[in-house]
Write a structure and sequence with these properties.
The chain has 273 residues and is an alpha/beta fold. It has one domain (20-252): NAD(P)-binding Rossmann-like Domain (Rossmann fold), CATH 3.40.50.720. The protein has helices spanning 24-35, 48-59, 80-89, 112-140, 162-182, 225-235, 258-262; strands at residues 15-18, 39-44, 65-69, 94-97, 144-149, 187-194, 247-250. Strands 3-2-1-4-5-6-7 form a seven-stranded parallel β-sheet, with helices on both faces. The chain is globular and about 55 Å long. 44% of the residues are buried.
């Protein structure tokens, strides 16, 4: 007979906040958590209709949904939205930092304002939201889960994405630091690093990824937002209570292809954005 698992302060999560949940991965995460009986706070930047559509899907699972606008270029003020959602939901057990932005411009052509804007949204905003959420978790004494949506570019670079790659790599390192610092409060902190996913951000809204060929990806296609959400949902459960400071790459094997793919390139067109 196996030994029983040690008792943890973290029970089944009851309330989550998912930033950038008006579409794409954030929406899929919000709905997946709702399917597990979790009340969900939803944030959006400009797409209020999308956020309300997500809220309707969340409520169809018999749980509560709360919606707030979150502008991560207005920092540190905007992070108070986490406090507002925690107050409306009666607390916060899970934070999923999903809101983000990017560029398609080489570093030598980029002005500082563009650089700073991406870092503000993708790194500063995630830090401040995590800090706010962790304070509520610590005060409640139930532990918690912080899950940062990074990217394969947490680990691998891309031409034309200097601030995005820097921010995601920074968020990956921040994830590890927070995992160390918050462990004494039974709060785990992990990142999920998607590859190409069929979402509005990749210009593939409502596209079935099984119909899109990606010969350079071992699984041969982009991913579905729900496939990322499934990993996030697992990390939010008590079953993942001993997982912290880790990065879960969800990319169909894309990042494994460096040496393999580089031998097949026949010109230097990869230098273009």
């Amino acid at each position: 007979m196996s030994a029983p698992l040690p008792q943890d302060r973290v029970g089944a999560p009851m309330r989550a906040v998912v930033t950038g949940a008006d579409s794409g991965i954030g929406k899929a995460v919000a709905v997946a958590l709702a399917g597990g009986g979790v009340d969900v706070g939803i944030t959006f930047h400009t797409d209020a209709d999308g956020a309300e559509a997500t809220a309707r899907e969340v409520r169809e699972h018999g749980v509560r949904a709360a919606v707030r606008q979150l502008d991560l270029t207005d920092l540190p003020t905007a992070a108070s939205v986490v406090d507002e959602l925690a107050a409306e939901l009666g607390g916060i057990d899970v934070l999923v930092n999903c809101a983000g932005t990017g560029t398609a411009q080489k570093a030598m052509d980029m002005d500082f304002d563009t650089w700073r804007s991406v870092l503000s949204v993708d790194l500063d905003g995630a830090f401040l939201c995590a800090q706010r959420a962790a304070k509520h978790m610590i005060e409640a004494g139930r532990g918690g889960r912080i899950i940062n949506i990074t990217s394969v570019h947490e680990h691998q670079p891309r031409v034309g994405a200097a601030p995005y790659c820097a921010a995601k790599a920074g968020l990956g390192a921040l994830t590890k630091v927070l995992a160390l610092e918050l462990a004494e409060h039974a709060i785990t902190v992990n990142s999920v690093a998607p590859g190409e996913i069929s979402t509005p951000m990749t210009g593939q809204e409502d596209v079935d990824p099984r119909t899109v060929a990606r010969p350079g990806v071992p699984l041969g296609r982009p991913g579905h937002a729900g496939e990322v959400a499934s990993v996030v949902a697992f990390l939010a459960t008590p079953a993942a209570g001993y997982v912290t400071g880790a990065s879960f790459v969800v990319d169909g094997g894309m990042t494994l292809m460096g040496p393999q793919a580089s031998q097949l390139l026949t010109d230097r067109s990869w230098l273009r954005t």
